[in-house]
Amino acid sequence: MPHIDLDEIRQYVADNIGSFHKARLDSLAKLKLTKILERKNPYLFKAKNILTPELLVRTLLDAYLSSQEETMFGEFLEKLAIFINGRIYGGWKSGIKGIDLEFDSDGVRYIVAIKSGPSWGNSRQISKMKNDFESAIQAIHTSGSKIPVMAINGCCYGRDKKPHKKGYQKLCGQRFWTFISGGESLYTEIIEPLGYKAKEKTEEFERAYAEIITSFTAEFIREYCIEEKRIDWEKIVRLNSASVKPKAPKTFKKEKKIRANAVEEIKD
Question: Of the residues 35, 64, 72, 154, which has the maximum number of CB atoms within 10 A of its CB?
Answer without folding.
Answer: 154
